[in-house]
Amino acid sequence: MSFEPLKLHVKTVGPKNGNRRVVFSTRGTHFGAFDGYKKSETGSLKLATPDWMEGDEAAAMLRATMEIEIESDKRSSAGIEPSTENPTGWENHWISGRVDRVVNDLSEVVADVSLLDGHDEGEVGSKIDPSSYSNSSAAVISIEDGNMLVDMSDIDQTIAVNSVIRVRSSRLDIVGYLEP
Asked: What residue spans carry the region label Disordered (predicted)?
């Protein structure tokens, strides 16, 4: 299933302490995202982002998750508006964009995602275990430089394809990276 990853600059990669924070930048905007451990297809738990990615460009799959607030967006701008309290944290960013589709099984969408931590630069990363996402639903939204996922698993709200929405999530997660 096609997914256009966000083209982002990896500004900083935080320390591994169970809650790795990665700061991205795009079009002059800096924002943080959570890089938690995810199950690889070999069964091991891995982070997506290695230290060596700092300063590089990346094709990232991000997902707005946890507590989600969705509203119609009458503005024409699409993109990420970082939290005013902590722009480089992973909480409470606003994402605006057009809904491309809603999927009830994310396993097909994440099938090509790689987890690069633990691999040297230039090596092929470990593929994510898609079955970890088989019971997850999400909206795929188009923002300025690609697509993002909005976790719909615990949302009782229906959103229409082609609608323009604004989403605030209590956490922005890095699912992984799509390698060229």
From this structure: 72-91
Per-residue pLDDT of the chain (180 residues; tens, 9 = 90+): 589 999 999 999 999 887 799 999 999 999 999 999 999 999 999 999 999 999 999 999 999 999 999 998 777 678 999 999 999 999 999 999 999 999 999 999 999 999 999 999 989 999 999 999 998 999 999 998 899 999 998 888 889 999 999 999 999 999 999 986
pTM of the model: 0.94
- Whether 95 is in a domain gets the answer yes
Radius of gyration of the CA atoms of the chain, in A: 15
Phi-psi region at 79: left, alpha or beta (left = phi > 0; alpha = psi -120 to 50): left
Distance from the Cα of residue 90 to its chain's centroid: 11
Amino acid of residue 98: R
Domains of the chain: total: 1
List, in order, residues 6 or more apart from 85 with CB less than 8 Å away: 92
Q: Assess if residue 1 is contained within a domain.
A: no
How many of the other CB atoms lie within 10 Å of CB of 165?
19
Domain region containing 96? 6-177
In a domain, 74, yes or no: yes
Instruction: Tell me the residue length of the chain.
Output: 180
Question: Which helix (H) or strand (E) element contains residue 108?
Answer: helix 107-110
